[in-house]
Amino acid sequence: MEQEIKIYVAGKVSKDSMFQTSFWREPFCRELSGLTGLAIKNLDPTVFEEGKPFDENNADLIFGRDCFMIKSADAVIVYLSDDISVGGSQEMLIAKYFKKPLIGLVPKQSKFFGHKELYGREYKNWTHPFVKLTCDYIVHDLEEAAICLLELFPDKKRTKDISFIEQVVFYYTKNYLPTDKLLHSPDILTSQSFAYKGLIVDPEQERMLVIRYADRPDVAEKVRGRYGMAGGKIYNFNNPHRDFSRRVAEETGVKAEAKLPFGTWSWSYERDNQLHNIFAIAHLSLYQSGEIQDPYRNNESDLDRAYWLNFENVNIADFNEDEQPLLRSFFDYGKVNPFVV
Fold first, then answer.
1. Which of 73, 184, 230, 236 is deepest in the core (most CB within 10 A)?
2. 256-290: per-residue pLDDT in tens?
3. CATH of region 4-160
4. Nearest CA among 156, 127, 124 for reference residue 140
């Protein structure tokens, strides 16, 4: 019995493309099936029930249907023709959002691959950076795509997810931003970091774990003496949840596990004549083990210590200004008990 694999083929949809038809995906998949011996199910965004075309003005329908297909696929193949449009490039990132293996079919000597002269420099066997980093595999024709499906796919360790974007931002800021003088202007953010914070709930779902910032003149006024959610900057983008657990343990002595994300926010601060921007994701998190460190000790000089607060005693105004809107929305959303996970 043939192995069945569901493929979403990203690329041009317009009949005016290089394929001269909107319906090129089915013969593409038939040929790929013949080369691999696999029963390929073509999840085709251009096919709909006969006599019932979709309303192309309904953006939620069109975008949502494509996303659903990509989420359902075993792999995504993007045909990077020179005339590929915005939809195809968006679908590449959607594949990474759902952590789907992405095969980039890049014809040789095309807009995206080959010998190039850019800004006065010549490059041999150049691959467009946006293609090279987004795709898990690069092939140049259908035969190579077939070999990729048979021999390489699926290598789960090689499949990237959307966090690769955070990884390359970190790579740039660490290795090149210090010498990229153009971006050192005061009106441009010169440092950007990502953080996980947790609304950490005890096993009885009656208390939340918080940290308190030190009440000292050298601590920023908007957090001075106030509560905040535990957590911190993420450096391991391959496993941010592990980084989150480590940071919580460092700050509180408690081990916790991040569960459901429930909001995002950002803030900026200036230190050493440099502007720092933090983008944070808040997670509903569960206590696992450990006791609060008392007295609190570690290298985070802005922090005082950690506390368990009863939900009935929580006063949003006691929290730092950046977290108040997020916490207020969260508590307003579930007045009865929003903490059942």
1. 230
2. 999 888 888 887 777 666 667 788 888 899 999 99
3. 3.40.50.450
4. 127
